[in-house]
Amino acid sequence: MIIVNRRDYIILNEIVKNPTIKDKYLIEKLNLTKRKLDYSIEKINDWLELNNIQPIAKKNGKYYFEKEVLKILQVTDEENIMLFHTSRERIELVLLVLLTSKEKILLSKIAEELNVTKNTVLNDIKIAREDLKSLK
């Protein structure tokens, strides 16, 4: 199973599609800082190394990577790739579910769907509640 967050997956996908992609483009497209982009690439490289794949390297404005990285991105089966939502995405999803569902909603079901613990969902609900209060 491949476990990455959504941003890292998008960055990796963009780099593989276009190895000459400019950092500036990624920063603007994904609304990142240079530091966040560097951190994401560092996390991607850590994950690649853990899986015995050479990390992505950048030289003369071009990204270099092994063919194994292409195989990772060819995995499209949802059971084989798990994208984690950011905190803000989770909060928005929890709000969406809570505000639109006509049925009883189990905390454990939300946690399972978001691939997080029940405590994380409770914390997200707490933040969502504060967000709603600020709208008054």
Automatic annotation (TrEMBL):
Name of the protein: Helix-turn-helix type 11 domain-containing protein
InterPro entries: BglG_antiterminators, HTH_11, WH-like_DNA-bd_sf
Organism for this UniProt entry: Ligilactobacillus salivarius
Domain Helix-turn-helix type residues, every copy: 90-131
